[in-house]
Amino acid sequence: MRSLVKAWLAGFGLVVSAGAPAQPVVVELFTSEGCSSCPPADALLGELARKPGIIALAYHVDYWDDQGWQDPFSIPEATQRQRGYVRRLSRSGAFTPQIVVSGDTSLVGSNRTEVERAVKGDRDSLRLSLAKEGDTLYIHFLEAWREAMDVYLVGYLKEATARVESGENAHRTLKHFNVVRSFKQLGTWNGRPQRKVVSLADLPRDASVVAVILQRKNQGAVAGAATLALR
After folding, report:
1. What are the tens digits of pLDDT across the range 174-226?
2. Which of 75, 95, 107, 205 is least surrounded by Cβ atoms within 10 Å, i.e. has the fewest?
3. 167: Cβ–Cβ under 8 A, 6 or more apart, which residues?
4. Which residues contact 8 (CB under 8 A, 6 or more apart)?
5. Structure pTM?
6. DSSP E strands, the chain
7. Quick check: 39 and 172 in contact, CB under 8 A?
8. Which of 152, 230, 226, 137 minimizes the C-alpha distance to 188?
9. How many CA atoms lie within 13 A of 142 on its CB side?
């Protein structure tokens, strides 16, 4: 099925997502340059990002920005995303570094053993295919499902290095991976195989990759995901 879809898309001159795993695991890290406990989790996410079958995303929250250093990568959408998981996973409150695996497992982001165990867990995943032409993204939902799902578009920067001048990480140079620069809900998928067309014109200039996440309602378990490099 996948080879037929890719051949059909290529026939129209579209750039098609390549090498996307059939059942990718989505790993979401909530972090901040202002948090001294976060660099080990950032490094772990970088390792995971290089492994096949994993979509690793770093959300820089903004509630650390008044603690002595304003993170240049922080966005309010990251904090909102984390709060959704706090409500869903019955956590007492937000913390950094936090990793959420597949939308259903919350862990301390620097706990390598527990994170790697969660990533290896057996999960179902619905297949998506992404393609683009100019500033237009085509999302192909390749399977049918019995329930509606929320669809999210994530634009992210693959790597960045930053020098921190104050706060808990003062005078350190930090390396970041898959930094989320934009996050928005695209609406709801009704569970039927179909194509959705999305404009990328408003994507931040530094976003070099997009991910589409298919997730159960109320920020539940992730049901599918795919990525596409923009350049």
Report:
1. 999 999 999 999 999 999 999 999 999 999 999 999 999 999 999 999 999 99
2. 205
3. 33, 34, 64, 67, 68, 69
4. none
5. 0.90
6. 15-16, 25-31, 54-60, 98-101, 105-108, 128-133, 136-141, 149-164, 172-189, 194-199, 209-215, 222-229
7. yes
8. 152
9. 17
List, run by run, the mean pLDDT of 10-residue segments along the chain (231 residues).
Answer: 39 42 84 98 98 96 96 98 93 93 96 96 88 97 95 98 97 98 97 97 96 96 96 89
Q: What six digits make up the tokens of 95?
A: 């913390």
Question: What is the domain partition of the chain in residue ranges?
Answer: 2-229
Q: Which two tokens stand for residue 229?
A: 């490099």
How many Å apart are CA 21 and CA 216, to the nearest integer? 20
- Superfamily per CATH, domain 2-229: Glutaredoxin (3.40.30.10)
Residues 16, 49: Cα–Cα separation, whole Å: 20
b/e 159-173 (16+ beta carbons within 10 angstroms → b): ebebebeebbbeeee
In this structure, is the dihedral angle defined by the CA atoms of residues 162, 168, 171 and 175, taken in order, positive or negative? negative
DSSP H/E element including 42: helix 39-49
Q: 16-39 b/e with 16+ CB inside 10 Å = b?
A: bbeebbeebbbbbbbbbbbbebbb
Tell whether omega for the bond before 97 is within 30 degrees of 0, i.e. cis: yes
Q: How far apart are CA 42 and CA 63, in angstroms?
A: 18
